[in-house]
Amino acid sequence: MRILLAEDDPLLGDGLRAGLRQLGFLVDWVRDGVAAERELRAHPYAAAVLDLGLPLKDGITVLQEIRRAGLSLPVLVLTARDGVPDRIRGLDVGADDYVVKPVDLHELGARLRALVRRSHGQPQECLRARDVVLDPAARSVLRAGEPVALSAREFDLLHTLMLNAGRVLSREQLEQHVYGWGQEVESNAIEVHIHHLRRKAGNALIQTVRGVGYMVQREGETA
């Protein structure tokens, strides 16, 4: 799950990035509001963690601008401002959740997973398709009740497809979801990962829509 972290404190930002990566998130980190708005407009992040006290452009302004631009990704505001008026202001301009520093990393991860789930219309903690069950918190996959061993990239790719069940995603869209800054993407990387996923989780799970991309059907639907 690729997220944007906007935090200007170097020690806190580095700690949050490292901690969220350990929890399985793919984290791009920026240190000012101008960069945050630019990256949010340029990439399809699953969610954003946004500090309000950013330099160059404060978090509230960034939030207002991306909502005016029609960006609907979940935004979790992370701030030292713990007054009720500040929380109300953040929520009123488009924040989806609000956490006051210092924050427990596991709680932050759980809140992000819940926000992303709800933004995709997925009310349950685990995602299901055919006989496959994916648990984002445990980063585990079961097929017919048996564990499936996936690489980190394979898990992220399957998670993205199952979150977007019923929607066709192009190779380029999938690359943007599962690769972060500076990560080299070979031309056939997505196809190779799809091949491995079909071998491990079943050929019927991921469908190819010729000339468009790949999809996982919604639970209960059949091809």
Automatic annotation (TrEMBL):
Its main location: cytoplasm. The keyword Nuclease does not apply. Residues 124-218 form the OmpR/PhoB-type domain. The keyword DNA-binding applies. Residues 2-116 form the Response regulatory domain. Residues 124-218 bind DNA. GO terms for molecular function: phosphorelay response regulator activity; transcription cis-regulatory region binding. This is Response regulator. One of its GO terms (biological process) is regulation of DNA-templated transcription. The lineage of its organism: Bacteria, Pseudomonadati, Pseudomonadota, Betaproteobacteria, Burkholderiales. One of its GO terms (cellular component) is cytosol. The modification 4-aspartylphosphate is found at D51. InterPro entries: CheY-like_superfamily (IPR011006), OmpR/PhoB-type_DNA-bd (IPR001867), Sig_transdc_resp-reg_receiver (IPR001789), WalR-like (IPR039420), WH-like_DNA-bd_sf (IPR036388). It comes from Caenimonas koreensis DSM 17982. It comes from the Bacteria. It holds the Pfam family Trans_reg_C. It is found in: Cytoplasm. Keywords: Cytoplasm, DNA-binding, Phosphoprotein, Transcription, Transcription regulation, Two-component regulatory system.
